[in-house]
């Protein structure tokens, strides 16, 4: 394996670790670690699109959105599938499917609210910094599935 190929493989492993750390910080509700996943400062404006939300721009607005999500989510777990990493220079593009299991605030007497499953396809753009790979942009879009009722309506009687 030549030196260039070895460096590319190491970069991909580092990007994958940074991507995993981002999701693990969300699962733990660790806003400080999550904040550390994003590019610092405002020289390169970060952006985020949560499923069903408008575009959020700027580090402050993006991090406030995660604080709000964490404050209203008792439990969240991400199972990432279809992870693909592409790189050019100091920029990495990660696409994946977020298989999300989450629960809201508990109802009377329950330890946890009802659990809900959701599929989201995500694109995470990372930039290389002296402190490692940092998120520049996150875009999550819900995966819409057809219901069985739609299939029934199309069946001739």
From TrEMBL:
**Which SUPFAM superfamilies does this one have?**
NTF2-like
UniProt feature, compositional bias: Acidic residues: 146-157
Residues covered by the SnoaL-like domain: 15-143
Q: What is the official name of this protein in its record? A: Alternative dihydrofolate reductase 3
What Gene3D superfamilies does this protein's entry cite?
3.10.450.50
What is the originating organism of this protein?
A: Streptomyces globisporus
Q: Positions of the region Disordered? A: 138-157
């Amino acid at each position: 394996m030549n030196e260039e190929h070895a460096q590319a493989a190491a970069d991909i492993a580092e990007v994958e670790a940074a991507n995993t750390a981002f999701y693990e910080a969300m699962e733990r509700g660790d806003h400080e670690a999550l904040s550390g996943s994003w590019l610092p400062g405002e020289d390169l404006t970060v952006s985020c699109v949560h499923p069903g939300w408008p575009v959020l721009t700027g580090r402050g607005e993006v991090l406030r959105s995660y604080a709000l999500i964490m404050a209203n989510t008792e439990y969240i777990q991400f199972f990432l599938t279809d992870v693909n990493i592409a790189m050019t220079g100091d920029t990495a593009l990660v696409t994946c499917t977020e298989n999300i299991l989450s629960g809201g605030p508990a109802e009377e007497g329950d330890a946890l609210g009802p659990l809900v499953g959701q599929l989201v396809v995500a694109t995470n753009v990372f930039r290389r910094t002296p402190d490692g790979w940092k998120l520049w942009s996150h875009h999550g879009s819900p995966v819409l599935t057809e219901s069985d009722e739609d299939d029934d309506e199309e069946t001739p009687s």
